[in-house]
Amino acid sequence: MGYTIGVSTGLWKIAHQQSPGKSLEFMGLARKALWSIYKGVRFAQIDLESIAEFLEDDLDQKIKKVKEMGIEFGVHGEVPETAGRLVPFLDSAEEDVYKRSHERLIYSAKNCARIGSKYYLLHSSASRSWHELSRDLGPTLMVDIWGRRFEHLFNEEKWLLDWAIKKPFIIEIFSRRGAKSIEEAEKDEMERFEKRYKYDKGKEPSSEEKERAHLDIKKEVEEEFKKALSDMISRNDISYGVERIAFYIIAKWMESGKTCPSELRATWKGIARGGSIDNDSFREKADNWVPAIAAAYTWGHFNPKDSRYEDPKKYFEKMWMAFETPMTGAGVEEAARLAKPMHIYHMVKNLKMKNAVVVLDFEHQLSSWIDPFEQVKALPEGEGKWIKIIHIGYPAVMAPAHIPIPLGSDAQFWVYKILWEYRKKGFKDGIIIFERGGGDEPIQETVLALKKVTEYLEKDVAPEKLPEDFYGLTKLAPETIRQRLQIKNHALDPLKGMLMVPEEEYDFLGTSAAAQRKLEEWKKERLK
């Protein structure tokens, strides 16, 4: 039990840009891991840039030597920022993306298990944000959470299609007949019927004829809308934001709980908190429900129902599947589909995997407009046990920053405060990783600062009671004595100009120095 400190190894691409002559030490998984030897830690997070790295010559023997040196490691999977836009998107409803993401998940998990990685880590979401979907052209071929075309779910849950065609927020996406709703389409058809009837027979139809015609038209229009909707999300075409339809339908299925797996029902309750997709104000705030659907699609990858998809859980018998709070960016800070730690917690808790864990990255949270302290307050008592990895860096709101933490700095104290809150909620053992930035020495004093942080966390020292040693100081250190002298000399500054007796600016030696016009020299020397 306790905390393990580690560092991330960085990326060959960045190293090659900064210093081509030194980039060879980051060529391959084993060499990346060995970079950590000189950083005062025994754990390395290897940053995977391409799944092709698993094909490195004699990789198993190289990794064996790394382990013989006492180094443990985990693998950070591909992310769009460094590996391109075709990395695993486990929260996508697009058929091609779903298939490709599952294949890469299986391949990476299998090879991470093969080389003895402590974990395989992915960002909880890397797909286009919900807010971007209505603006982007994309394929219309969608799948359910198990990667099956929607016709399968509609055959199992016929009521879903009946529900979908009566919702204007779905109809407007595929806009059948140009109508805003099925009722509007029925009204248009009734008007055409009455005009034809009057033209053919020269009189108005009777109420009985209108009623019979309305029943026929209603059935005909509903069947047409059903076919149009089902066809649209089951064929390969291009349109704007069709993935929204898939998310709406899955949301209603999860909300209803009729045949939805109990784990997904629990996920919906935990994230949506009793809300309904039929409610306009609830639905229009994406953060109310979109994370639950993103979590459901991820759940589907780990609990396959279709024989075409291999079950990845067998690769995680001795390895963690780690889901990290993702990075967004300026302008889309709040737009990730699944970004809040509390939402990831509900997904992981209900994933039906014994080795699924939560990864926190406070820099990612801050840059995504998420307050880490508000998130830890919302976490139930004792549930910090689901958190096993934390990425630590200077608490920057601009990502990716990955700025080192100076020993004795405000950043070190900030890190302690947030980790203290998570420790109180149950995070009492895990891996704390500093993710490196660029430069010749990206670590600097960070490892020393984190060692002080973990030392006093394990001693259960509250932030307000941290001693000088936490900041790398001792009571008799010269810098400590100088600071105390400064405090003592300026303790009465607030009273200047307020006393009725003559005030003295300098002590005996200072007055003498002032008389000899050597006051500046005295000021420089007095603290030595």
Write the layout of secondary structure elements.
Layout: E1 3-8, H1 12-18, H2 29-34, E2 43-47, H3 59-68, E3 72-76, H4 80-83, H5 95-115, E4 119-123, H6 130-133, E5 137-139, H7 150-156, H8 158-164, H9 168-174, H10 182-201, H11 207-232, E6 238-240, H12 243-256, H13 262-272, H14 280-284, H15 290-302, E7 320-324, H16 341-349, E8 356-361, H17 362-367, H18 372-378, E9 387-392, H19 410-424, E10 430-434, H20 446-458, H21 478-489, H22 508-515, H23 519-525
Parallel strand pairs: 1-2, 1-10, 2-3, 3-4, 4-7, 7-8, 8-9, 9-10
Antiparallel strand pairs: 5-6
Helix pairs in contact: 7-8, 10-11, 12-13, 12-15, 13-15, 13-16, 15-16, 19-20, 22-23
- Which structural class should the secondary elements be placed in? alpha/beta
Which fold does the CATH topology of the largest domain refer to?
TIM Barrel
End-to-end Cα distance, whole Å, is 45 Å
Question: How much helical structure, as a percent, in the residues?
Answer: 40-55%
CATH architecture of the largest domain: Alpha-Beta Barrel
Query: Major sheet, described briefly?
Result: 8 strands, parallel, barrel
- Tell me the number of structural domains: 3
Q: How much is the radius of gyration in Å?
A: 31 Å
User: What's the pLDDT, averaged over the residues?
Assistant: 87
CATH class of the largest domain: Alpha Beta
Total number of beta strands: 10
Number of helices: 23
